[in-house]
Amino acid sequence: MPRPKTLPNEEVLDAALAIMRKEGPDALTFAALSAACGLSASTLVQRFETKSRLIQAALLQAWDRLDRLTAELATSAPKTPEGAVALLVGLSGDYGGIESYADDLLILREDLRDPASRARGAAWRDELSAAIEERFEGAPATPAGIGLMMAAQWQGALLWWSFDPRLPVTDFVKMSLERFVAAFTEAPAGD
After folding, report:
1. Which of 15, 42, 71, 146 makes a 20 to 30 Å CA pair with 124?
2. Would you report the helix, strand and coil content of the chain in percent, each value rounded to 5?
């Protein structure tokens, strides 16, 4: 079968990310990507120049998708504390099972190594925190900084789930976040 002459960067970077998820970032080479997407290794080198630029482009495309998903969920989630839980549960759906979650930690390592990806992560943190904060506007007894606190609780729930993944990740996250919200939204006994 002949090699394709062209392939959009989005598809090439999807293939690169798939290799990184399945085999780890060190397995991503121009030869491996060539075998996965069908473009010649020389064509890939012309497009991305170096392995580090290829990895960065794949990571930034993944950040673009996460930004879009976050915006979509923020648009559809009610502006209530329950909507904040729904937003974060929605973001948890892509983690899948324990194997894919563990593999994605290798991708996170690459994000932390790359200054452009770290900047995207910091910007996403701010956007996500603001979206969560919106869902608590007008809720009584809401602590200052609830957006970042709840995002941190969410990330912690994902990590704790990974040590004992008997439940689907979304179920575990939902239960954890509902307990978190209840801790400061429910009236104390005797009120």
Report:
1. 15
2. 75, 0, 25
Q: How far apart are the first and last CA of the chain?
A: 74
pLDDT in tens, 74-86: 999 999 999 999 9
**Alpha-helix residue ranges (DSSP H) falling in 24-142:** 30-37, 41-48, 51-76, 81-92, 98-113, 115-134
Q: Token pair of 190, please?
A: 């005797």
Whether the Cβ atoms of residue 79 and residue 135 lie closer than 8 Å to each other? yes
Q: Are 173 and 186 in contact (CB under 8 A)?
A: no
Instruction: Quote the pLDDT of residue 13.
Output: 97
Q: 82: closest CA among 174, 189, 153, 152? A: 174
Say how far apart CA 103 and CA 108 lie, in whole Å.
Answer: 9
Which residues, 6+ apart, have CB-to-CB distance to 4 below 8 Å? Answer: 38, 39
